[in-house]
Amino acid sequence: MRRIANAGHEIASHGYGHQLVYKQTPEVFRQDVYRSKCMLEDLIGKPVIGYRAPSWSITEDSFWALGILNELGFRYDSSIFPFKNFLYGVKGAPRFPFRASQYCKDAGDLLEIPPSTVKMPLLNIPFSGGFYFRALPYPFINAFAKQVNREKHPTVFYLHPREIDPKQPRLNLSKRDALIHYYGIRGCKSKMTKVIRKFNCGAIRDVLL
Ligand SMILES: [Zn+2]
Predict the structure, then answer these.
(1) 55 CA to middle of ligand 1, Å?
(2) Which of 57, 112, 114, 200 has its CA 20 to 30 A from that of 83?
């Protein structure tokens, strides 16, 4: 963590226990996030101002979490996916940064920064991280990121470190979960490297705040 922070990158919080927010009580959520924020700040000696929920789990059932993030001193959240599936997403949520107070009256000035999607006639298509990034060939990712840039917005890319590690130990998962977790891991690092080389990249702290 210290090496990453000292290299000039932003360190934000993904929570401590990586549990779905909508399955937690507000008090359990507060403790989990506070614990990770304090731990990271002690390690890097800088304020942690950003949060992203495990599996984008701030949804209609857990908008209350935005108020807690504001109370804990976060300046932005990046957990509301404007694309709905079985696990996460908020239908009709904005595709570009907006005030989280739109969904929670206690959110103060907290900024909500959605992961990128491209707008298609019937739905928004995710492409810029996780399973979508691993599954799509690079030319699609390149074209979609440029489309977002043409709309005058930066593309929000995201990956877990494990998504570029083909040698990680495999969990015993259902067919569906194994596909979501492991599909395309082998080619992911080279795709990520291409993105970093081809696009002008920066941290959310520096580009969007
Ligand atoms: Zn995660």
Answers:
(1) 6
(2) 200
C-alpha of residue 151 to centroid of ligand 1, in Å:
28
CA–centroid distance, residue 54 to ligand 1 (Å)? 4
Provide the pairing of β-strand 117-119 with 50-51: unpaired
Place of tokens 């996916």: 81
Full domain range(s) for residue 141:
116-209
> What's residue 151's pLDDT?
98
- CA dihedral (145, 147, 152, 157) in degrees, to 10, reads -20
Residues within 5 Å of ion ligand 1, judged at the Cβ atom? 54
Residue 16's pLDDT band (cuts 50, 70, 90): very high
0.85 surpassed by pTM: yes
Which of 53, 84, 114 finishes a domain? 114
- Burial class of 53 by CB neighbour count within 10 A (0 to 12, 13 to 18, 19+): buried
- Structure confidence by residue, pLDDT tens digits, 133-170: 999 999 999 999 999 999 999 999 999 999 999 999 99
Total tally of structural domains belonging to the chain: 2
